[in-house]
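Tutorial, part two.
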Amino acid sequence: MVRLVGGNGGELSPRRQTLKGSYTMVETKDQAVEAQQTFFRVTDNVPEEAWYWAALGSIGISAMLKLSGKDDWAIFVGQWPPTFLLFGLYHRLIRPSSR
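Running the prediction step on this input gives:
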């Protein structure tokens, strides 16, 4: 069931529409901003090149695992490079001044 929460003077604001047990759009945006700030607090100290070296290293480790017959581990580690590359790209796009 959808309920509208009244604003000033009893007006109903569509921004404040909520479903029972869910967050409002404002609360969700605040959580997203907090998550982004936490990401940058952690990754600001990591050089950009480290993400690319981590991607290359995980490709190499995955190849070695595949050659040693550990196929499940090779697939698991082989899925890491896109994540590392996206971290590096995201950091470069959002914080271009830190280069």
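The chain has four helices and two strands. In part three we will examine how such features are distributed along the chain.
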